[in-house]
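Quick check before the chapter quiz. The format below is the same one you will see on the exam, so make sure you can read both the input and the output lines.
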Amino acid sequence: MGDYLASRLVELQSRHEEIGDVRGMGLLRGIELVKNRETREPWHDLGALTTARCLELGLSMNIRRRPERGSVWRIAPPLTVARPDIDLAVTIFDQALTEMKAVVAKRTGR
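Here is the expected output.
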């Protein structure tokens, strides 16, 4: 299941420039959120908004916001997770990130 989760997250990364890196092992994964993939500048505001929206949609995940480490979501599903659960989580995350990017763009003109 760890390989499946990783492949779904890399697929999500290919659709969202704001996902700078997907890393981890097994079912413990980190998703780095950046303003720019080249500079790796963290995008804390978008991370906070997306995390809150995920929770509203039923996905509980947390984000670490440290200046030296950036904005990184930690994903650690239970060892008994099934493919449909991973698919639902990725769908929710995709929806939340897409919606919150639009909110930030409207606020900042970005």
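If your answer matched, good. The radius of gyration is 13 Å.
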